[in-house]
Amino acid sequence: MGGGSGSGPKSDKEDSPMMSTRRRALGASVAFVACFSIPLSADAAPRPVFAPGGGGFADPTVVSHNDQFYGMSTGSLAPSAQGNIGTGPWTSEGPALTAKPSWATSGVMWAPDLERIGANEWVLYFAAPVAGLDENQRCIGAATGSSPLGPFTPVAGGPLVCPGRANTPSPDDTIPDRPLTNAGVIDPSGFKDSDGTRFLLYKTQQLPSSLRIVRLNAAGTHVASGATSRQLLRSDRIVENPVLVKRAGDYILFASRGPYNKCTYETIWMRANGVGTNAFNTVTQHLLLTDANTGGVCGPGGADITAALDGGQRIFFHGWLCGSGPCPVNFDAQTDEGGRRGMYLGVLGWDSNDNPVVSKFLSPE
Predict the structure, then answer these.
(1) Going from the N-terminus, what domains does the chain have, and what CATH number goes with each?
(2) HSE of 284 in the Cβ direction (CA atoms, 13 Å)?
(3) Fewer CB atoms < 10 Å away: N or C end of the chain?
(4) Tell me, what DSSP letter sits at residue 201?
(5) Contact at 8 Å (CB) between 300 and 29?
(6) Across the chain, how many H-helices and E-strands are there?
(7) What is the CA radius of gyration of the chain?
């Protein structure tokens, strides 16, 4: 759930070093411990379960429904795919969206997120480019459909989340107290709490990074009446692609960290006992997926978590491919040619302390 496609840069999806100066350390408000949550030593990188030509399958969102897996990725009108099991075979199913929303300047969507609302009710969240902000800035919209493959029709009116300076109809959430008024928003991610309340998480573009959350209506199509978004995390480093899971009463926040265009892009997780303002600012950031502990997957990020057909959970994520294998460790998608992102698959479990672990990776048979 990131942005861009092909070997070219996403321009600012992770506020790349070409556009802004990155600090090498977290801000003092964020504790960091370099501890791994994978009780395995991957000797060789797994093979991607889906890696179509062209732009690949970046920033995957995947759901399981009726004994099938359905996925969407960054690209023109949100490319979709279907797999009978997680390891495939996967089949490309074309764009999920019928058209771009009226407020968007193009149909290239970043980091879509697919959520089931009810029987024959699905919502697709996406980040689309807009006018009126800094270059390559985006706003978040929603679209509805009756099946996981759509077709999805954008919700009428303005964006779901968008800075007030954008040239769009009035959005539901204008990102209050955001100092970078010309920066956009990306990486939408739906979350349903144990009491049934729906939320949307997202990332603000440019540095410093912030992850935010806002309460939605029951249909998941608009911000709930009277609700305003709040910041969950602020960092001087690139932190993006939030995915929230509730476990044993706590909230586990998965995210991607680092520059998307390099093999050092990684997946982290954090724990908090609530989702109030700045709930994740001072908690430990644990490593979950890195190029080292995946056996050499280049930039394992953009992760999404879904229920498995066996009752467990799976983690889908992307990594850079050069040809049929992972790109070399010094690969940089902003300067090197030939890279695309393929979708990988791991088995997500929980240890005795309810910490997430990836017990193994799965490859196509």
Answers:
(1) 32-362 (2.115.10.20)
(2) 9
(3) C
(4) E
(5) no
(6) 0, 23
(7) 18
pLDDT tens-digit readout, 131-159: 999 999 999 999 999 999 999 999 999 99
Dihedral sign of CA atoms 101, 105, 108, 111 in order: negative
State both tokens at 188: 């939408």
Condensed to tens digits (0 to 9), the pLDDT of residues 91-110 reads 999 999 999 999 999 999 99
Helix%, strand%, coil% for the chain, nearest 5: 0, 45, 55
C-alpha 10 chain-centroid distance: 14
- 39 cis-preceded (ω within 30 degrees of 0): no
Distances (CA, A) of 230 to 103, 115, 137, 323: 24, 21, 20, 42
Cβ partners under 8 Å of residue 203, min gap 6: 185, 186, 187, 209, 210, 211, 212, 239, 240, 241, 242
Picking from 261, 272, 293, 279, the residue whose alpha carbon sits closest to that of residue 359 is: 293
pLDDT of residue 20: 30
Q: Tell me, what's the pLDDT at 176?
A: 85
Which residues does the annotation mark as catalytic? 59, 240
Using alpha carbons, select from 252, 254, 251, 342 the residue that is nearest to residue 303: 254
Weakly modelled stretches of the chain, pLDDT under 70: 1-43
Query: pLDDT value at position 37?
Result: 47
Token pair 């009108």 is found at 77
Distance from C-alpha of 184 to C-alpha of 167, rounded to nearest angstrom: 12
